[in-house]
Structures are given as structure tokens and as C-alpha cells.
Amino acid sequence: MTASRPKTKEFDVWQVISWAVLAMYALFLIYPLLKLLWAAVYVDGSFTLEYFGQFFAKKYYTNTIWNSVKVSLLVTLISLVIGVPLAYFYTKYEIKGKTALQVLIILCSMSAPFIGAYSWILLLGRNGLITNLFKPLGIQLPTIYGMRGILLVQALQLFPLVFLYVCGGLKNLDNSLLEAAENMGCSGVKRFFTVVIPLCMPTILASALLVFMRAFADFGTPLLIGEGYRTFPVIIYNAYFSEVGTNHNFGAAISIIAIVITTVIFLIQRFANSKFQFTMNALHPIERTEVHGAKSFFINLFCWLVVMISFSPQIYVIYTSFQKTSGKLFVSGYSLDSYRKAFESADRAIPNTYIIGLEALAITIIIAILIAYLVVRRQNRMNDTIDTLSMVPYIIPGSVIGIALVIAFNAKPFVLTGTVAIMVIALVIRRMPYTIRSSVAILQQIPISIEEAALSLGSTKLEAFFKITVPMMGNGILSGAIISWVTIITELSTAIILYNLKTITLTLEVYINVTRGSYGIAAAYATILTATTIISLLLFMKVSKNKEITF
Length: 551
Prior knowledge:
Elements: H1 13-41, E1 42-43, E2 46-47, H2 50-56, H3 59-92, H4 98-110, H5 113-124, H6 129-134, H7 147-171, H8 175-183, H9 188-199, H10 201-217, H11 220-226, H12 232-243, H13 249-274, H14 293-320, E3 323-326, E4 329-334, H15 337-345, H16 349-377, H17 381-395, H18 398-408, E5 410-411, E6 414-415, H19 420-443, H20 449-456, H21 461-472, H22 474-489, H23 495-498, H24 506-516, H25 519-544
């Protein structure tokens, strides 16, 4: 009788992938953030809190925190007031031209925030189109500069995020609950506040967090339209580039403060969200109903009026891109001169935008679907850690990520500053959470028994994943990818810290030309980005055969 051989441990490819993903985050996220912390507290060979003390000792700096929090809270409130009813009307009722309406809503949120600020300056600035129309009538419009302008620009750009999230939440709502409420005499506005809002609260809180973080991290809008109203991201940028020269310790200290603030806000949101956790199966999803008469008129008026006000600045930017210019000024007549000058001076920016963007998107999609599988199908401590790390860039301002990467990779052994690689890395780290979340959501709906059947028929784990699971995740991957792609090509806060003449992109060209006063060329670049966004959305709808995008 021969002794049985001990069983060899089966090679687990997903364990290797887990370690590889964890190593990626360790190198490109944890290591830069630790270097950032080191630069903030370790100066000239000794530990110090000098730069933190310098920040909190001056109201000039500390007031910017309150300014940013106040603006972000107000923007979040306004976005919820607009976005939640809009999502409810869009999901519950038949809206005229609903597909075009959704495309326009998405386009409102997809341009770089500072482009929205620039657009509103063209309309309501001191020499804006609307301002000049009212001047002969003796009507002085309120100034768009300062806090008021920041609120206007950010709220009209960020409410679409609430709309997309809440639309997704409403699709998971069982219509029988609404019917039961109506049968008990609870209908109309009362049903909306007592039934719909509580059932959608987890989604509403998630969208509120995203809006708050986006508003808090935006420095392009306050920089262009804020004038004397100083916000925290602008101080981070100015401190890093202006006040400490090549030292960067003060900028690093302020960046650490930003991380602490956004982390606290994120934890508060998580705590609030835990109070509204419940599961619900939408056996009878909400179906759109026809409305007639005054109700139909006011619902359509509200939806289209909000969207057209929000999108009108982009329409005007497109219009101005075809106006004649004399030097930096618009003159009467139309021409393609702005586009000619734009293409002549952007021989690198245009190809860079698409090459860097597509490289970042390809890497984002591959890593995101692998992380989604690890999080959903291979739950353990390591993969839970990966899931947590994947959300860190979601809550940290882009300028902080950019500063951390510069500090980490501007000296041996890793010299990446000024290269295409560091731009791609920053975009992947920053924008991957969108694709991860949508991929996780769709994978949770796919039964694991399908993969088990493939394995029993002889497929390897990777074959079963890429040939069976990934195709079934298609719509979820594409939904996240389209959001990642558009935010990649319009990224400013990270790119402005990392770029050089070799890696400049269209968004940066818009920003540079706006600050120089070359509005015609800036409008041409902005129009190219808008056209890219529209084409991307139309391709998404054609490929996915899905006319609606939700989170």
C-alpha cells in the first residue's frame, strides 16, 4: 500500500491579482501621500509643526476653510433642490424629448468647472451679453463675481450628478409602494416627501457627498469668478507654487489639512448613510405615466427651463467661437479664425488630450473590472482594503493628489515628474472610482452560478471571468467608463500641477487662454471639448443600446 501524496496547493490567479492591485495603490497612492505628510512635518532634518502653526495662526488662511465649506454646503443644498425633483419627474412621467433632455443634463456637468465660470462671465460679467442688454434700460444686474457667482456656476454644473444618482435609485424603487401610498390617500407632494425621499435617502446622501466633494475641490471656478472670495483649493495652489518657492513644505501642510477635512466629511456622510440602510427588490419598477393639462405643462416647463438655463452658457461659448476677433476682442462678423489659431497653437494639446485620455481610460477599465470582481466575488481583508483605497481619491481634492505625486516622483529612484506617465497615473487614480462603482453595482446582479458552470466545463478562472462575466457586465462598465472618460479629458486641478509644454492638454489650453484674455481661442478649445463629450455620449448610447445613463 503506497502512501498518498500530499495535495499541492492550487495556484490562485486572483490572489496574485489582489497583490498586484494592492502594490499599485501602495506605490501610486499611499507612497505619495506619505511623502506629502513627510514634507509637511519633516523640514531640514527635524520634525516640526511650524507650517501647520503658520496656517492656523492667520485668519487669511483659516477663513478659506469656512468659505469653502459654506459654499460647498450651499451648492449641495441647491443641487439637491434642483436635482431630486428633476430626477423624480424624469423617471415618473413622460417628458417631451426626454432623451435629448438627459443628454443636455449630462453635458451640463461634463465641462470643466472653470469653463462654466468663463461662460457665465461672457453672459453676466461686467461686459457680458445679458449685462449689456439691460444697461440701456437703466437696470443694474447683481454682480456675478464673488460668492454669488461661485454658487451659480457650481450648482448649475453639479445638480446633474444628483439627477443621475437619484434616477438610478428611483429605478430600484418598487412602484407598488407608491400605489399603496396613493390608495391610502397619500399622493402628490405629500407622497414625494413622505415616501419617495425616505426610500431614496441612501442615494441622495451619496449624491450629496459627491457634489460636496466636487464643489469643495474646485479651484478653477473661484479663481476666475471668485475675485476677493478666497477658497481653500485656491490657497493650496497658491501656497504650493507661490509662497514657498522650491520648498513646498507649506503647500504640503495645507494639503494634509485638506485631506483631514474631506475625510471627516466623508465619515460623517457614511455615518448618516448607515442610518438609512435597507434592502428592497423592485418587483414592479416605476413606469412612466402620461400627464396632461396644466400638470404636464408645469412639469415640462420646470425640466426644460432648468436645463436650458444651465446649458445656455455652453451654447453661447460655442457661438462666440465662430465670432471674428481683432486681437483679443470680439468684433462683428463670423469666421473660423479662432479655430485656425487654436489648431496652429495646439499642435500638442489636441493629440495629448486624446492619447493621454485614451491610455488612462484603457488602464482604468481593466483595473476597475478586476477590482470590482475582487470586491464582489473574493471578499477578504486584503480586497476590503483595496476597496477602501479605491475610494480615497474620490474624497481628496485633485490638487492634493497632484502635489503628492510631484513630491513623490521628482527624485530618484522614481523620476516621473514632467512625463506622460505621471499624467496618466494621476488620471487613472483620480477617475477610476466611477468605473469601479458602476462595475461593482452590475456585478452584484450577476449570479455566481454562471461562473461556476463555466469552471465545471473546464474553463480557467480568468477565462470564465473575461469570456463570461465581463461581457455580462458590459453596460455597467460602459456607464462608469463614459463618466471616467469625460472627466479625464476635462481634468484641470491635477493636470495644472503636473503638466509641462510636452504634456499640455485642451483643458489647460482653455484655462491659459482665458487667463490671457484670448477668449476666441479659449471658446474654440472649449467647443472642441464639448463636441468630444457629445460624440462620446452618442457612441455610448449606440454601443450599449441604452438611452439612459444612471449610477
